[in-house]
Design a protein that fits this description.
The protein is of the alpha/beta class. Helix content is about 40%, strand content about 15%.
Length: about 290
């Protein structure tokens, strides 16, 4: 099987390289310099040359706040580019694996969101990701949509690395305590994709939408406490005073869901996957950053 991974230099793309490097499949990793998904004709030409059996789309516009002032660019990359990829996959009879977000929900639930829960994004980022999902569903190709959230890793820019950096610069940090989600280690997402690809269970009965997130729902404040607690145990001198604050005290251009916990039972049951442990993920990142 030939697998094409788009967005190899992003946080998830780099983790996919780690997890798929020893795959028995032929895996081709592509950066924006190789295939710019925003250039539709070029993307089509290059993918038709490669003729993959599976396209993993780890590319996209992820700057949540910037999307509010760049809606056309966000729509181009998160919606129209996905529609183009879906049509290419349909023509090649290829499977498309696409990553989406908890931001397709409004955060007003009091229970974990299942895949078929009503969607209602509150900002441009979530809206464009949802339109990308719908374009993929409507294209008629074989697909998996993997919604994940609060992704962190040793790569790129993310909340964990930001906290560690700020912890060396400031004695006190204010962190939001009334937004709840599931921090997710990107290596665990990538490992889940490796398991799914090797399972032999990608077929008409398993195509569809899935949630894969960490097993520990918490607030950003709780997440920060875990980060600095583990950092202290690892001997890193980054232990600032953490002050819990409300969302209203930390205004941002994009409205965040207050509760975006996702239910992962479907993907675990379908592909017999294990979970993603928060503290284990933090420890693994800290070990790699301090190596």
């Amino acid at each position: 099987m030939r697998v094409l991974v788009l967005g190899k230099n992003g946080q998830l793309g780099q983790c996919l390289q780690d997890q798929l490097r020893s795959s028995k499949d032929e895996v081709i990793f592509s950066s924006r310099d190789d295939i710019d998904v925003g250039e539709f004709a070029q993307t089509s030409e290059r993918i038709f040359e490669i003729k993959p059996d599976v396209v993993i789309n780890a590319s996209g516009y992820t700057a949540v706040d910037n999307a509010e002032s760049e809606p056309n660019l966000a729509n181009h990359l998160n919606h129209l580019a996905v529609a183009n990829l879906a049509n290419i996959c349909l023509s090649l009879n290829a499977i498309m694996i696409h990553f989406s977000t908890d931001y397709v929900f409004d955060g007003e639930s009091i229970v974990a969101y299942k895949e078929d829960a009503p969607v209602n994004p509150t900002g441009v980022y979530g809206s464009t990701k949802l339109m990308g999902e719908l374009a993929l569903k409507n294209a008629g190709c074989k697909y998996l949509i993997i919604r994940t959230s609060w992704v962190f890793s040793e790569y790129g820019n993310n909340f964990l690395k930001t906290m560690l950096r700020l912890g060396t610069e400031k004695n006190e940090l204010n962190v939001v305590e009334d937004q709840f989600g599931c921090p997710t280690y990107a290596q665990d997402v990538a490992h889940a994709m490796a398991v799914i690809l090797s399972s032999g269970e990608l077929n008409n009965s398993t195509y569809g939408v899935y949630h894969f997130v960490g097993d520990t729902p918490c607030s950003w404040y709780d997440f920060a406490r875990n980060i600095f607690s583990q950092a202290s145990l690892c001997g890193l001198k980054t232990t600032p005073i953490l002050n819990p604050i409300k969302t209203v005290d930390y205004p941002t251009p994009a409205i965040r869901p207050f509760y975006s916990v996702l239910d992962t039972s479907k993907i675990k049951r379908t592909f017999r996957l294990g979970g993603s442990n928060l503290n284990d993920g933090i420890v693994r990142v800290l070990a790699k950053l301090s190596a």
